[in-house]
Amino acid sequence: MKIGILGGTFNPIHIGHLILAEEALHKLNLDKIIFVPSYLPPHKEEEVILDAAHRFKMVSLAVKGNPRFEVSKIEIDAREKSYSVDTIKKFKAQFPPDTEFFFITGSDSLKELFSWKKIDEILALSNFIVANRPGFPIQGVPKAIQMVAITGMEISSSDIRKRLKEARSIRYLVPDAVREYIEKSKLYI
């Protein structure tokens, strides 16, 4: 089995995340993608992050209806800072030994890559995949990292939060179910 792991803050999840997952699924010939909302991401300490329960619910709503997408509470249930190396080890312990893991991240993460906890171990435990993101060129990438080209979408969670604070529309930037949940729960205002 080939499983993609797509972790992130998902504050909130948006169409760009879903397009990345769908294209990676097919281009890498994966059996499924597991979305992993972080509990406390170590590289976003300055950012105000919505409660994990809300972020998990939004990801669940976003992936509903795609039988090859799942969402995991593995990092949320740990209730501590989320480190990718620990997450991959936990998944490896849960699945058969012949399961192949593909850890997927966007090119915006490359600038912080060598500050990640035990990056060498992450590269050894999984196929490390970097997907292009507009405005974040892929350069200086170690040979152990694979690139995957996806349809570029200039959508960011920070822009969505800004739009919501300004009472502007986020229609078509997030799935309708996520937009409705944000509006009903009065999030990010």
Chain-wise SSE layout:
Layout: E1 2-8, H1 15-27, E2 32-37, H2 52-63, E3 69-71, H3 74-78, H4 84-94, E4 100-106, H5 119-125, E5 127-131, E6 145-148, H6 157-165, H7 176-185
Parallel strand pairs: 1-2, 1-4, 2-3, 4-5, 5-6
Helix pairs in contact: 2-7, 4-5
Structural account:
This protein has 189 residues and is an alpha/beta fold. The protein has a single domain (2-153), classed as Rossmann fold, CATH 3.40.50. Helices cover 35% and strands 17% of the residues. The chain is built from 7 helices and 6 strands, in the order βαβαβααβαββαα. A 6-stranded parallel β-sheet has the order 3-2-1-4-5-6, sandwiched between helices. Strand 4 (100-106), helix 5 and strand 5 form a beta-alpha-beta unit. The longest helix has 13 residues, at 15-27.
Helix content: 25-40%
Distance between the termini: 42 Å
- What's the tally of helices? 7
Structurally, the number of domains stands at: 1
Strand content: 15-25%
Instruction: Give the structural class.
Output: alpha/beta
CATH C-level class:
Alpha Beta
Q: Give the total of beta strands.
A: 6
Mean pLDDT: 88
What's a quick, concise take on this entry?
By secondary structure, the protein is of the alpha/beta class. It has one domain (2-153): HUPs (Rossmann fold, 3-Layer(aba) Sandwich).
